[in-house]
Write a structure and sequence with these properties.
Layout: H1 6-28, H2 35-42, H3 46-50, H4 56-79, H5 85-99, H6 103-116, H7 120-147, H8 156-176, H9 183-193
Helix pairs in contact: 1-2, 1-4, 4-5, 4-6, 5-9, 6-8, 7-8, 8-9
GO molecular function: DNA binding
Organism: Hoyosella altamirensis
Domain HTH tetR-type: 11-71
């Protein structure tokens, strides 16, 4: 049996800690989940947690980054086969209904954001994460306008900020009331893009 290198072993430990923390944080919330409990559940010492993450904030931030990355990958898969703007919207709508407003995810995001409001360093880190999300959305919006001959009446970055803000608010509403439809987000995209479609398209 080939022995793992130290780096491989640490990477595996880190991955297992993130997976365990994700299950527990989503189930119990940030405040109710301790590093000790995560370490016990994962089968590691508390020292093993601290050798991979500075504190619970760092671990929770990494968990949320992984959750967002998984949802983003699912979205890319969902829309990748679209051959028209309408198909793109339909695929996005299907993803939105499944994803936006996930109660446990939305609650954890909200709880962690409140936590960050009392910690300047953490607030800056979450601000950086949000900026990266806006950057990715900006790229997607720009790619869509180019692929489907659309025009924007505001910078793509502003569109990205508007869509992210609407998505966050809609997610919180749907977490409280699942009967609220996510269709409004798709309709907003259509309103911002389709009404500016060039005559040639």
């Amino acid at each position: 049996m080939v022995r793992m290198s130290r780096a491989e072993s640490q990477a595996q430990t880190r991955k297992h800690l993130i997976e365990t923390a994700q299950r527990m944080l989503l189930a119990q919330g940030y405040a109710a989940t301790s590093l000790e409990a995560i370490a016990d559940e994962a089968g590691f010492s508390k020292g093993a947690v601290y050798s991979n993450f500075k504190n619970k904030d760092a671990l929770c931030r990494e968990v949320l980054r992984h959750i967002r990355a998984d949802h983003a990958a699912a979205l890319v898969t969902e829309v990748s086969s679209a051959t028209s703007f309408q198909e793109l919207l339909d695929s996005f709508a299907a993803w939105s209904e499944r994803t936006i407003g996930d109660q446990k995810w939305s609650t954890l995001e909200a709880e962690f954001a409140v936590r960050a409001s009392a910690d300047e360093l953490l607030r800056q880190q979450l601000s950086s994460d949000a900026a990266e999300i806006r950057r990715v959305i900006t790229q997607l919006v720009s790619a869509a306008t180019e692929s489907y001959d659309l025009e924007l009446d505001m910078p793509a970055g502003d569109v990205a900020t508007a869509l992210l803000s609407l998505g966050i608010g809609l997610g919180l509403q749907r977490a409280i009331d699942p009967s609220v439809s996510a269709q409004i987000l798709t309709d907003t995209i259509r309103a911002m893009l389709v009404r500016k479609m060039s005559p040639a398209s």
